[in-house]
Amino acid sequence: MQHRIVVLGAGYAGTFAAGYLARHLHHDDVEVTAVNAEPDFVERFRLHQVAAGQQLKHRPLAKIFGDQGVRFKRARVTAVDADQKTVAVDGEHGLELVEYDTLVYSLGSTAADHGVPGVAEHAHHITSRPAALRLRDRLDAMGEGGKVLFVGGNLTAIEGATEIAESHPELHVSLTTSGELGGWLAPKSRQHLMRVFDRLGIEVHEHTRIERVDADGVVAAGGSRHDADATVWAAGFAVHPIAAASGLAVEANGQITVDRQMRSVSHPDVYAAGDAAFIIGENGQPLPMSCASAGFTSQQATAAIIGDLTGRTVKHKGLPYVGNHISLGRRDGILQVVDGDVRSRYAVTGRTAARLKESILKTATWGVANPTFAMPSRTHRTAVRTRTAVAA
């Protein structure tokens, strides 16, 4: 009887985990199923490019997973019952339950509305491909002088505002943030960031806390108003509420509480990777929701699963957070190195930083889409086969 591994979500963390497990565990012993709502692998960290009107290459998950021996189920996850080891999904065949022996939870995150009224009804976001496409269509429908307002001062807001300002010079782009734009960056990096915003004509409103979003813009604390034809909410990420409702132990923000091996502390047959996992990094701080964190946590989770199923020693993978890599349109960027939890003075800016980020993203995506080269097969037999034989 095969051991059933189910991977929820096929972003960077989930796609890597499913492929790696399928290529390192013997198919006679293990069946790996990946569940994802979208049919294609989505380069989430390029979604600001999609919103700006750029075309990205389609990478069908059925093809990617087919090359690895992973069963792909296109469906939306609606619930997880960690006690019964079942996942409720809504897919091509309607509602159904998927049973598992081992679960990899990597559903990722969405935009955090922080309880601000009107965000869900009136604001756009760029945390999913459908959302990015809706924003693209809205931008295309605007006439010259249309107003686009980003709410947020983090990486998503910065990358989205600069990308759209560069691709749509006919539009007026502005940004509001509750703090100081790029305040966490080293002085050299922040000075470069502000020069780019000035070059692209992006209006910045710092120390502005938004209290309400409506169809025509936002209202800030104190009653000041900022009009917009499209408001883009980019004020941080929130994990989907499915984990908190599943019976799994979670943090206050809904992330799954895991041990150093990425196992759920309440249900050791569940592993979390990517934005859904709460884990302390090597700098003593929680790993942020990011592409880099997805890679490190999925590597640790897969190593732990293989070790647990085969009896091999589980090695600790590194969980570093080395810095911020920010694109500022297609020809500019910032690479800010972080020393522990303190920002470093070392930074690369301009076209060189843009090329470095482009190279990193291409390498990561190529590795996902070309598993034969990126993940050579080293199949191991598991203890499942031994237990089955003993039982017989």
From TrEMBL:
<dbReference type="InterPro" id="IPR051169">
    <property type="entry name" value="NADH-Q_oxidoreductase"/>
</dbReference>
<protein>
    <submittedName>
        <fullName>Oxidoreductase</fullName>
    </submittedName>
</protein>
<dbReference type="GO" id="GO:0003955">
    <property type="term" value="F:NAD(P)H dehydrogenase (quinone) activity"/>
</dbReference>
<comment type="similarity">
    <text>Belongs to the NADH dehydrogenase family.</text>
</comment>
<dbReference type="InterPro" id="IPR023753">
    <property type="entry name" value="FAD/NAD-binding_dom"/>
</dbReference>
<keyword id="KW-0285">Flavoprotein</keyword>
<keyword id="KW-0560">Oxidoreductase</keyword>
<keyword id="KW-0274">FAD</keyword>
<feature type="domain" description="FAD/NAD(P)-binding">
    <location>
        <begin position="4"/>
        <end position="292"/>
    </location>
</feature>
<dbReference type="InterPro" id="IPR036188">
    <property type="entry name" value="FAD/NAD-bd_sf"/>
</dbReference>
<dbReference type="GO" id="GO:0019646">
    <property type="term" value="P:aerobic electron transport chain"/>
</dbReference>
<dbReference type="Pfam" id="PF07992">
    <property type="entry name" value="Pyr_redox_2"/>
</dbReference>
